[in-house]
Amino acid sequence: MKKLSLTLLAASLAACATPQPQVATTPVPAPATAAPTTALVPLERDVHSYARPNEARVTHVALDLATDFAAKTLTGTATLTVARAPNAREIVLDTKGLEILGVTDGGGAPLRHATGAGDPILGAPLTVQLPTTSDRVVIRYRTSPDAGALQWLTPAQTAGKQHPYLFSQGQAILTRTWIPTQDSPGIRQTYEARVTVPAELRAVMSAEQLTPDGEPAAGGRAFRFRLDQAIPPYLIAIAVGDIAFRPLGPRSGVYAEPSVVDSAAREFVDVERMIDAAESLYGPYRWGRYDILVLPPSFPFGGMENPRLTFATPTILAGDRSLVSLIAHELAHSWSGNLVTNATWSDFWLNEGFTTYIENRIMEALYGRDIAVMLQQLERTELESEIAGFGTDTGETVLHIDLAGRDPDEGMTNIAYDKGSAFLRMLEHAVGRERFDTYLRSYFDRHAFQPITTSQFLADMKANLLGGDEARYAALQVNRWVFGAGLPSNAPVPASDRFARVEAQARAFVRGTPPARLDTTGWVTQEWQHFIGSLPDTMTLRQMGDLDQQFRFTQSGNSEVLFAWLRKAIASRYAPAMPALERFLTTQGRRKFLVPLYQDLMKADWGRQVARRIYATARPLYHPVSTGSIDQIVK
Ligand code: BES
Ligand code: ZN
Fold first, then answer.
1. What are the two backbone dihedrals, phi and then psi, of residue 341, each rounded to the nearest 5 degrees?
2. Is residue 628 helix, strand or coil?
3. What is the pLDDT of residues 72-104, one digit of tens each?
4. Which ligand 1 atom lies nearest to the CA of residue 355?
5. Going by CA atoms, what residue is nearest to atom 20 of ligand 1?
6. Measured in angstroms, how far is the CA atom of residue 225 from the centroid of ligand 2?
7. Dmax of the chain from CA atoms?
8. Whole-prediction pTM value?
9. Does residue 623 have its Cβ closer than 6 Å to ligand 1?
10. CATH classification for the domain delimited by 7-236, as one of 2.30.180.10, 3.30.70.1170, 3.30.70.120, 2.60.40.1730
């Protein structure tokens, strides 16, 4: 009796120390020669994966890949460790565009396998007969030159112009275009990799670096990596290029091309303090190091929370640290998303809504309440325009979104971020900050290294935050928040005094006060963003010119300010900003900036011509994620 409980205790302690994939520790008795079988903790059905993880589940991925920049391919092997239910005979993997060159067991004996019919969104299932005497499946394969997760940049597309560059972007369902595994966010896997690259380049991954300087290998240099924490496959990430490093703090640093790395290090001086702030709110940072990789300008997102190594756009290098909330956001994912993960893409708001809320808490801890409330109000403005754009008679403004038959990318709108964070802020106000913080911290501890569904979260919240009080739960309109359209009546209203003053200055300008006489003393980036956002949709050329002469918006080196200004410039057909618009559209590839600007241009005849001309030259510079969206807009 005593012995049994000690064993159980030891097992649960071990599980805490080294997060492992969700497989129970009790082996099911099996003949000595057969592969071990395991009781698999059941997982939610994910409509965006072919995997049947309740039968057989990948628990570890070992990659050995060579990069070929001329052919734009990765070639090599993925050795999968598989946990299986007692009667499982085969495992189903996700693939998209992969050329499968052979499948064997760990000893090199061929395994029967077949690729099923393909789907334009999901790719194709690869079904492999499981080996009877081991738990290893070795897949030899090659990626396609147009693998959706990989962007192969020519030297001209980099900052240094000397060397090519490769980076991956797995979220949501693109990892299957470079790794044959079970590509579902609920199926956590540890991983290791050996990557061979041209001798003058360096590889980095979302993992511990075992060989920071690489080691000589046939055809170049090899870099080895290992991640002991089990993660969803969308977080496996790689970049290869001419990449330098600068330390930021004891457990943080920044990677970027040599010509960018020093300005990046200056921009991100506060990162170590951000980690400390997040830890004091939500418990230990469980990933060891936190580094940032600043990518070449075609990176299609602002940031991507790859574990241990956030990927970030260079457009946040404003020179004055004014756009670092993006780093707070990606860091926050180390709890919401990477530690506790949306079980399916319909639960995406659990990743992004929580992260947007936590991002704001980190910003408040570092820079104070004023900045935090201004950021909340910018979020709210964005949310209202998003809801207005969709209308409330569609399902698009619902947090738990129905994505059956659709590309999950389509459900990844601002709603998940901004309505999600507003929901959490409403809960915070309802129960008080102290109780809410205690709850969130316990939530991350209790669900660490596990997937979570929306209904699991709601049950957890009802029980552990509201003490099971059904009436309270109903009064907070929880179901309306999560399953209903639009914004419920108890949405908190952020009110920033500083923004109220900004709006007063915008009104004064509209009434005729010359820009030189507006009171803009001490304004920070967020106030300038809000000022531009508060101006009328279209203005006269005189108004635009007066503002520009005084505030130099067209020359702004701040991407958010410039973006807000360029939208006004298009709406007012303000010609002096057109060269800056063209430069902005051809020197960075962040989808969040590109899509609205092309949409704005396409609203008028003159703009359509400009959009088509610029897109014709810029398109080859953009990432497939961005062209996928802009192709629908510029026709
Ligand atoms: N995880 C997202 C990026 C993402 C979402 C990639 C969906 C693929 C599919 C990341 O954390 C993110 O939200 N990035 C934002 C920045 C953030 C400050 C709102 C972005 O890229 O704009
Ligand atoms: Zn995010």
1. -115, 140
2. helix
3. 999 999 999 999 999 999 999 999 999 999 999
4. 11
5. 302
6. 24
7. 87
8. 0.95
9. no
10. 2.60.40.1730
